[in-house]
Amino acid sequence: MSISVNLAALMRSSKDSNWGTPLDFFRKIDSIFNFNLDVCATADNAKTELYISPEQDSFSVPWTSRGVPMETVAWMNPPYGKGEKACWDTSKCKKKSCVKRGYHIYRDIPGIGNWIKYGINQVKICSTGILVMLLPARTDSKWFQDVWDNACLICFVRGRVTFVGAKDTAPFPSVVAVFAQGNLNDVIYEKMSSLGNVVDSRNSQIIVYGGKR
Ligand SMILES: C[S@@+](CC[C@H](N)C(=O)[O-])C[C@H]1O[C@@H](n2cnc3c(N)ncnc32)[C@H](O)[C@@H]1O
Question: How remote is the CA of residue 213 from the centroid of ligand 1, in Å?
Fold first, then answer.
């Protein structure tokens, strides 16, 4: 199968998993956190002045906004695809995805689970101050367990998000998950409950903000 390897095209691809966050929805969350870094974006869809592009690669560059990781308040709406392994021997590669796209890939495409794991580690090991993720509420996914086990706040968004470029609302519900080095202020839990019910999982206990109490 003669399919060329084209990194530039790869960067532009994955349309399905690159839906942008609607601005009004982002602004509500930004008014609570005041983000200073968008960790996966392009010039066209970045939500903050400072962002990490596919060319820079979030998995290769430090997540710092002003050089101090602790001061980073990062926004992450990652590609939602399940990822793909690189085609090491392109002469033998018969992957349907390569045929469909018309070229092979020579580096792994991270899946949503890789993004989540990496993001959680950035907070744990590299001391990113706060990281907020917009994710599908796929509570049965393996990666959702990582979210549940590590987030200090999970907001189950009321209604469905209409992503930028989509004609209709998403066919799945969403969560906004917050990961932080230190403790979040109670006010943040209250404010986030305006978007949907909020699970507060600090101190190994679960408190629900916004729901019937
Ligand atoms: C779902 S979109 C989110 C865009 C924007 N941040 C927002 O919230 O509207 C995911 C973005 O991740 C970018 N992306 C994909 N792989 C990346 C990588 N390795 N490093 C940085 N950004 C990446 C894509 O180009 C795409 O723009």
Answer: 38
